[in-house]
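Subject: design request, 461 residues
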């Protein structure tokens, strides 16, 4: 798909265009016919010309890999990029958890549950009502928590949904200790995506961030050298978290993403299995284990006279049956059929020489791809990759932010370097890790097609 409103500053791009003497600005748009590309170009003060060509006759890399690319509709930002450090009501911990001065004065313990599993709320920002109600419906349908909308004059402790600066919530039920009997949950500009809403409601029900769990170091590594000094406290472990027998979940909607609070654009969290790196930070919807934890946190099985004994990570909700995790089946989840995490559509482990390429090659790679390859040579040898073709999205605002191939020559726990445009064409890179491993991770832009891809040979030397 060709992008709408993409601007390039370059010298000469499409074959057949006369190269102008001055830098030009190209405005690339798709016409009414989906197979035509219209381009307006001209130097400063020059009369704009018009050029039209069938898309399938134009080499895309001639457009995207010359000069600097500017995108006027960037991807939505997450709370670590939008939230203030301080709100009028107190400081934000871990990026989106509000700790109020009133809580500090009263010595309130964060994470208290809602009494009798009843969550009262009041919506003050009607513009976001549909998004809020969708998030509430999810947790109502997937747990035993009862949600009740109350009026502004109610004396019941309640969550006050507001639209202030950023996306944030208090942790658990703090309203019972407040003189106003309310606690705020902000869904400001850009905060009404389904995953974000269910994330913030999760906090107000008592959820910490997933990477705050006491067992996180078994699954991820914090790259402290890449964390902004002012935000290192956001990565502390909360040893008092109660995991309730639910395994750590890289795919949790409560998990930080790879580069949260980075000081240099490098990763702040690496998964110990690099092929699972793309799982962390998703904001699509709560995972199975998020739901399992909510049901165990609020002891939903106690509503059943004879709750079934679920195995292999299954849980009982208000319907009094076992809900089984991915990879299991049976009335008690007794049959294990596969892994909890879905098999990746691209990437994986490479233990033999050959080639590695962007997904779909030689066809165009898809939008929104996130693929990781863990190249593991035999003992005593090192992995080497040589790029014969490399053409992906140009830098945006001076960095490979939206689309890139990261190369971790130091192995699993190396932050690596990000490459885009044609930076690796003809380049040869060799592992420097003690065991000879290297890791590749390819991410493509979520909205538009931007390049033709890459191919590299893999050797063990």
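Subject: RE: design request

Done. Sequence follows.
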């Amino acid at each position: 798909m060709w992008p709408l409103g993409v601007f390039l500053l370059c010298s000469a791009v499409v074959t057949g265009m006369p190269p102008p003497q001055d830098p030009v600005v190209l405005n690339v748009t798709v016409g009414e016919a989906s197979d035509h590309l219209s381009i307006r170009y001209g130097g400063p003060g020059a009369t704009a010309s018009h050029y039209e060509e069938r898309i399938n006759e134009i080499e895309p890399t001639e457009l995207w890999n010359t000069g600097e690319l500017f995108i006027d509709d960037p991807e939505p930002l997450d709370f670590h990029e939008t939230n203030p450090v301080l709100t009028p009501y107190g400081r934000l911990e871990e990026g989106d958890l509000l700790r109020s001065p009133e809580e500090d004065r009263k010595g309130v313990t964060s994470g208290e549950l809602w009494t009798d599993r009843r969550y009262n709320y009041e919506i003050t920002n009607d513009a976001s009502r549909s998004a809020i109600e969708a998030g509430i419906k999810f947790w109502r349908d997937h747990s035993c928590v009862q949600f009740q909308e109350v009026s502004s004059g109610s004396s019941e402790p309640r969550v006050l949904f507001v639209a202030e600066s950023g996306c944030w919530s208090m942790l658990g039920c703090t309203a019972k200790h407040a003189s106003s009997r309310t606690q705020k949950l902000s869904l400001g500009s850009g905060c009404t995506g389904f995953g974000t809403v269910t994330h913030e409601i999760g906090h107000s029900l008592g959820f910490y961030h997933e990477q705050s769990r006491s067992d996180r170091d078994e699954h991820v590594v914090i790259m402290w050298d890449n964390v902004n000094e002012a935000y290192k406290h956001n990565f502390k472990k909360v040893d008092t978290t109660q995991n309730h027998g639910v395994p750590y979940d890289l795919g949790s909607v409560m998990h930080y993403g790879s580069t949260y609070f980075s000081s240099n654009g490098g990763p702040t969290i690496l998964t110990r299995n690099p092929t699972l790196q793309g799982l962390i930070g998703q904001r699509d919807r709560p995972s199975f284990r998020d739901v399992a934890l909510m049901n165990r946190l609020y002891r939903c099985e106690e509503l059943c006279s004879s709750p079934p004994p679920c195995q292999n990570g299954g849980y009982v909700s208000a319907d009094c049956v076992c809900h089984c995790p991915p990879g299991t089946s049976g009335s008690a989840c007794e049959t294990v059929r596969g892994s909890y995490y879905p098999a990746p559509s691209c990437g994986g482990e490479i233990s033999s020489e050959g080639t590695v390429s962007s997904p779909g090659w030689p066809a165009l790679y898809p939008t929104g791809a996130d693929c990781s390859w863990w190249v593991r040579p035999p003992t005593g040898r090192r992995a080497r990759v040589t790029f014969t073709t490399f053409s992906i999205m140009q830098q945006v605002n001076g960095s490979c932010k939206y689309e890139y191939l990261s190369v971790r020559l130091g192995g699993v726990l190396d932050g690596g370097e990000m490459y885009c445009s044609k930076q690796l064409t003809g380049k040869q890179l060799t592992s420097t890790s003690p065991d000879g491993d290297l890791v590749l991770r390819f991410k493509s832009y979520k909205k538009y097609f931007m390049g033709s891809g890459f191919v590299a040979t893999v050797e063990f030397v």
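Confidence is low (pLDDT under 50) at residues 1-74, 104-108.
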